[in-house]
Write a structure and sequence with these properties.
two-stranded antiparallel ribbon; 4 strands; mainly alpha; 2 domains; 53% helix; 244 residues
Amino acid sequence: ALRQGDPLSPYLFLIVSDILSLNIRCNLEAGFVKGIKLSRWGPQLSHLFFADDSLFFCKAEELNCRRLKEILDSFFSNTSRPQVEAISRILGVREVHDPRVYLGLPTIWGRSKKAALSFIRDRIKKKLGGWKANTLPLAGKETLLKAVATAIPTYSMMCFRYPANLCKEINGDIAKFWCGNAMDEAKIHWKSWQSLCRGKDSGGLGFRDLMDFNLALLGKQCWRMLSNPNAYWVRVVKSQVLPE
C-alpha cells in the first residue's frame, strides 16, 4: 500500500491516469464514444487531465453517456460509492454541482467580456482598499503595486484579450492609489500614468500598462503555438481562428 509522502505515488497516479486516457481514446477511435468539437474542422475533445483535475466531454446522447459511464465504472471498480463518500467526508472535500470558477476564471460567460472579467478589477480594488495609501512610503507603494496589484490579472491576460476600457479603469484605480487618495475621491495626478509606465532610465517608474502587458502575454502564447504546432491545444485553437 502507498503511504502519504511516498515518492512513488505521483508516478503511479500518472500511470493510472494514462491508462484511463488510453481507454477513452481507444473507444473514441472505435466510435463507441463521441467527443465534442469546438469547430467544424477541429479535433474531437473527449477528456482533459490537468494536475489533479479530470474533465470529460461527450456528445449529449444517452448511448454515448452510458458508454462513458461504463468506462469510468471500470476505472473505479475497486472503489465503491460508499468508500468514495467516506473519503470525501474525512478529507472535507465537498461535491460541487455548479462550479462558477475554475483556475481563477469564470466557467460561464455571457456576451460581455468586460462583465465576465470585472471580478478581476474588483479583486484589485479590494487589495488597494485594504492598504493605507496615505501612510505608506512611495517605495512601499511601488513594491505593492508591482508585486501584488498588477500581478493579479496575469493568468487571465495570458488567456484572453482584455477590453480596452477595462484596462483603462484598472490603470486608473492603480494611479489613484499611487497618488495617495481613496478610490472614490478625486485628486490631481501630477504625472500621467503613461509617464509612470516608462522605464526608470526614461524618467518613469517602470509600472505596467495593462493593455500593453496583455498584448505581450498573448504574444507569448503565439510564440508557444509557433514553437509547438502539433500540440493538441494548438490544433484546437487553430481550428477556430485559422480554419482550413
